[in-house]
Amino acid sequence: MVRIPFKRLFLIIKMYPPQVGYFRPESLGEALEFLEREEAKVLAGGQSLIPMLKLRVLRPKYLVDIGGLKELSYIKEGDTISIGATTRHFELASRRIRGLEILQEAASKVGDVQVRNVGTIGGSVCNADPAADYPAVLTALDATMKVRSKKGTREVKAHDFFKGPFSVDLNPGEVLEEIRIPRLEGYSQTYRKVVRRAGDFALAGLALAIKLDSGVVKDVRIAFTGVSQGPHRAKEAEKVLRDSKLTKDVIKRASEASTSGANPPSDSRGSSWYRLEVMKRLLQTSLEVMANES
Amino acid sequence: MKVEPDQKVRINVKVNGVLHEAEVEPRKLLVDFLRDDLGLTGTKVGCDTTTCGACTILLDGRSVKSCTLLAVQAHGREITTIEGLSSDSKLSPVQEAFKDNFALQCGFCTAGMIVQATFLLSQKKDMTEEEIRDSIHGNICRCTGYQNIVNAIMDASRRMKA
Amino acid sequence: MSYSGKSVKRLYDDKFVTGRSTYVDDLKINALYAAFVRSNYAHAVIKRVHKEDALKMSGVVTVYTGEELNRVIKEGIGPWTTYIDPRPWKIPKWRFAQGEVKYAGEPVAVVLATDKYRARDAAEAITVDYEPVDAVVSMEEAKKDKVLVHKELGTNYGYKNDFVAGNPEKALESADHRKKVEIGNRRLIPSPMEPRGIVASYDGSNLSVWYSTQIPHFARAEFSRIFGIPQSRIRVVMPDVGGGFGSKAHIIPEELAVIASSMMLGKPVRWTATRTEEMMATNSRHNVFRGEIGFNNDGTLVAINGTLEVELGAYLTYTEGIQPTIIPLMIPGPYRVRDLKIESRAIYTNTIPITMYRGASRPEATFIIERLMSTVADELKLDDVTVRERNLVREDQMPYTNPFGLKYDTGDYLTLLREGVKILEYNSMKEWARKEREKGKRVGVGLAYYLEICGFGPWEYAETRVTEDGGVIVAIGGTPHGQGTETAIAQLVADELQVPIERVKVIWGDSDAIPAGTGTYGSRTVSIAGSAAVTASRQVLEKMRRVAARAMKADVEEIEYKNGEFVHKREGKKMRWEEVSRLGYSGKEPGLSASVTLEGDVTFPYGVHMAIVEVDEYGMARVKEYRAYDDIGRVINPALAEGQIHGGGTQAVGQSLYELAVINENGQLAVTYADYYVPTAVESPKFKSYFAEKYHPSPYLTKTKGVGEAALIVGPAAIVRALEDATGGKFDFTPVIPEEILKKMK
C-alpha cells in the first residue's frame, strides 16, 4: 500500500517500475555479501517497495529479494518476543501472544487481506511511512531492532530507529534482521486507528499499553502514528497518567497533553487541526474503555 | 539468481496447473506477465496503487494483488488465476453464487472479487456479514454496492458445506 | 410463459465469472503503445518539447506533439449537439495541446513504442520547456474575469442564461418568510472500475476503433467530423465496458492522439489509462446555487430566486453543456412552486475539464430543491414529510407542465410519499434514532424525494432477426455496460415472440453490426431500446405470419400465432416456429428481420429514499442503511432494478461523505484510489429497495420509466438530512467531510 505525497501529482502517472536488477540470495549471508558490494534495496513482501518503484520514487540498481528466506521468518517467544523481519502480517495477525496482544491487533489492521498475505513486518517497518501501524506499536513497547550487515550486528531502539518520514537508521549494506519486543504481562493493550476509508493509512493511530494496580496506573506507554514525522511517543500524557487513577478528569487531562510535541500534517485525509482532535479523542475513548474494564 | 537491470531472467511459474517457463525483465509486474505474456486477461488492472484488488490472484494458495508483485518473485511458485477456478466448464461454487445473486454488474472487479472470496472461504467457512465486508475491503466495486456480493459469498459458503 | 416482471438471471455472466470477458485492454492485437507527457502547469506556454533522448531509446517508434497531431485532428472536440444547443455558448477550440496548455495534466506529447514499459520510460525522458502564465483554478477567481483561461473568448463565462418563470420578485415580497441559501456539490471523480482505453487501427482506407465508450455511434460521428473521414469508413466497437456512469460518453485529446497516430503511422495503436489518467480524464459535479427563497406559514414554497454556477474546467467537454441547461429546468422538481428565476452560469477554469456523471443535472437539481424543502421544514419547525406533502404536485394536476415547460407524464406523488413513509418505516426509525440519541449515540434518519427526467429521446434503433434455425438476434442501439439491460430486453422480446429466452441473443456496441444507435445513458435503455426491440419483434412476427399464410395458402388474417405455433384459425392446421423460420430463408421470402428507429420522449419516475446514518466520536459518518421506494413504471427485472438502487446508493454515499477531488493551488489533483475514497464494502450500507406495485406507466411500449440514476439523484439529499438529524448540524455542500462534521457535532 502506498500513500501519495499530495503535491507530487506527476510521479503517479508512471505505473511501471524503472529498469532494475534482481538478486535472490540463498541465505542472509549471501544477501549481506551482495548488499555490501552493490547499490541495492532489500525486497521482502514488496507491498511498500513495489508501489514506490511504480511511482519511480526509488530507483535502486538492484533488488535483493529476501522474501523467501525461511531463516528470517519466525516468531520466537520468551520473556522477549523475537520476530524475524520477513514474518508476514497474516502470521502475526493469526497469532495471539500473551503479554503482546497489541501486536496481533495491529497486524490485523495493516492494509487489507491481500497485503497482509504477502507483506512483511520488516518491510513495513523499514518503509517507515509516518502513518504506518507498527512504528507506533514498536515505539510504545520500546522494541529493539536487530540490524545485520557483513560487519556484524547492532541493536537500535525503536525510538531511534524511526528517524523521519520514510527514513530509518539503516546504513548501506545493512538489513533489519529481527525485531525484539519485551513481553508486557499484566498490561491492558490496544491499537486503534481512525481511517477515512477501510484499508487506508491512519489519519491517526494509537498504541496504548497500561498497567493498573488497584485502579492506579503503574506504567503506561502511549504512541501515535500519523500525527508527526514519525511515531509520536506522548510522554506528557504518560506523565499525567502515571500513579493516577483513571478518573474522568485525569483522562481528560491526559488526552489534552497527548498532543504536546505532535506536529500533524495537513493533507487530503484531514487538516492538522483535525488530526489533533482525533488524537485526543482516540486516547480519551481508549482510556475510558480501559477504565471501565478494570 | 542474479540479473542485471538491462537483462532478462528465466522464470518457472506454475499457473493454473501448467508450468510456464518464460524470460522477463526483473521489473515486470506479475499482472503484466499473466496478462501480456501468458494471455490470461481475466485478471484486471484497476488502480495501480494496491487499492482496488481487481488484480487479485492466489499465490501458493493465498490471495495477493498481482500489480504489487514482480513476476520474478513468483519464480518457483504456484499461481491460480480466475481462469483456473473452473474446470471442465463447471463453475466453482463461488462463481455459481455470484451469478445467482446478481453479484456483478460491469464485471471488471468480478475476477478479483471471486478469487478473494475463494481464498476467504478456503480459510473459514462461516463468516458473518461483517467479517465478509471487512475481508473484501481490498476489492473495490463501483457498480453493485456490495450487498449482492456479500450475499453471494454467504451463499457460496452454504453451497460448499452442502 | 412470461419473463417480464421476473428476476431472470443475467444472460452473459459466465464470461465475467470465469475470466473470459474482453475489455479493451484485454484485446490481443499487435499494436504500438501510446504514453503521454503531461503538463505540470495549470497554464503555460509550451516553448519547446525535447524529444531527442526519447527517440534514441530502444523500442521507441516516434514522438508526436500537437504540431504533428493537429494536422490530422482537423476539428476540435465539441458539445453533444443532440442535447446541447451550441449557439448561446462560448466554446474554445479543443484539440491536442499546441503552443499552450490550459490545465495541469493536459497531454503535450505522445510517445509510440513497442512495449508499454518502454513507452513510459521514453515519456519520462522527454522534457518540456514551459513559460508559466497566470492561471485561474477556482470558480470564484474565474468569475472576476481578471485572468482568462481562453483569451480569445474575452471572458471565463462559457454560458449565461436566465431561466425565469412567473414573477419571483413579487412572490418573494408577498411570502410570509424569506431565507437566503447556499447549496452545492463539490468536484468529484466518477471512477468506473475499468479505466478508459482505446485501440485504433487505420488500414489506409478504413478506420477501426475499439473503444471503452457508452456511445459508439456518436463517437463514430464525432471521429468522422474531427478527422474528416466518412462515417461509412469508420467502425467503432465497444467491447465489454467496465462501467461508465456517464463518464465514458465524452472524447478526450488522448484518444484523438491515438487515432491520429494510427493514421500517421499506418499501424494499430493502443492506450489504456492508468487509474491516475482515468481520474484526470473525467471530473464531475461542482456547482453552487446561491439565492433566496420565499415560503408561507403553511410550508408552501412560493419563490426561488438565485444564481447557479457550474464549473466547466479548461474546455467544454462533449457532455458538460447539459448541466447548466438542465439543472434549472429540474429545480422545481415534483413541487408546485411556479415563481422562479435561475441565473445559470457556466465558468471556465484552468482545471481538468468536467463532464456529466450518473444523473447528469438531476442530482444537482434534486440536491438543491430537497435542501430547500428541508430548509423550509427547519425554519417552520415542520417535519420533512409534512412540508413535502404541502408542496407536491397533486394527482389531479397530472399531466403537469412545470414552470419551465417540462411535461410530467404520469404519477401520484403524494400517495407514493405516504406509502413510502410506511414501507420505509420512516416514523418509527426517526423515533428509534431519537431514543438512541438520548442514550448518547449519534444516529439520524433522513428522507428525501425526487422526480427524475429519464429517457432523453430523441430516438433509438433496434433490429430483430429470426435466423434460419429459429433463433432470435436482437441488435440494439442501446449500449449496456454493466446494467444488465440486455437481459431485460431479451425478456421483453421473448415475451413478445413467445419463445424461450434461451433463443434470444442481444447484441450491441459495434457500429458495423448495428447500423445506428444512440446509447446507454439517462436511465433510458429498457424504455427506449426495449420499446424499439419490441416494435421490431412485432414486425418480424408479422412477416412470419405472412410466410406461414403463404405456406398454408391462407390470408394473413387467418393465421394466429401463439406459443411458437402459427395456426390456421379456420382449418386448424399448424406450422411450428422453426418451420416458418426455415421457410423465411427459402429463396422465396425476403428473410426474417425488421429494424426500427423509434422516437422517444422524456418520462418521469419518482420516489422517496431514506438513509440511516451513524457518526462516531471523530466525526466519521457511516450510512448504516439505505431504503428506497420508487415508482419507476413497470419493472421488467426486479433484481436488475434493485441492483441499480444499490449501486447508485453507494455512489450517493461516496458523493455525500467520501469523494472529493481536491484541486490544489497549482491546479493539481489528488488522483489515485489511495487518496480518493471510493466506498468499499465497509462503508457501504445495507439496502432495502421497493418498487410501487401500482405503478404509473410511461408512454413507452414497455411502460417502463427508468431506474439507473435514481439513487444517486436523491441519495445525497437523504444522507445529508440523516447526518443533520444525527449531529444537529446543518450541511449544504457535498461531500461533508469528517472535520466539518466534528465542528458541528453537538
Unreliable stretches of chain A: 4-9
Number of helices of chain A: 11
Tell me the number of helical segments of chain B per DSSP (H or I, 4 or more residues long).
Answer: 5
User: What Rg of chain A is obtained from the alpha carbons, in whole angstroms?
Assistant: 19 Å
Radius of gyration of chain B (CA) equals 16 Å
Q: How would you name the CATH homologous superfamily of the largest domain in chain B? A: Beta-grasp domain
Q: Estimate the global geometry of chain A from the Cα principal axes.
A: globular
What CATH architecture of the largest domain in chain B would you give? Answer: Roll
What structural class should be given to the helix and strand makeup of chain B? Answer: alpha+beta
Taking the alpha carbons of the first and last residues of chain A, their distance comes to 37 Å
Bin the helical content of chain B: 25-40%
Brief write-up:
The complex is a heterotrimer of chains A (294), B (162) and C (746). Chain B folds into two domains: 9-84, Beta-grasp domain (Ubiquitin-like (UB roll), Roll), CATH 3.10.20.30; 93-161, [2Fe-2S]-binding domain (DNA polymerase, domain 1, Orthogonal Bundle).
